[in-house]
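Tutorial, part two.
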Amino acid sequence: LPFEFMMNALRLFDGIDHKVFRQQTGLGLVVLAEPLQRLQQQGLMQADAGRLQCSPLGLNYLNHVLAHFE
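Running the prediction step on this input gives:
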């Protein structure tokens, strides 16, 4: 479920508000904590606490980013 959500959300240039993840999946962000931290450290996701969003570099490597959520 997290993978399918992220596959759709991260394709959006502006990403998506993190609250939508809980609304749509019924899961807390804690299930994404580890991959989000790794991706932020690699510069592939924005470190904005309010949004789930790829960095410009992450958009170029979207398939790699998404693989972290499988």
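The chain has a mean pLDDT of 93. In part three we will examine how such features are distributed along the chain.
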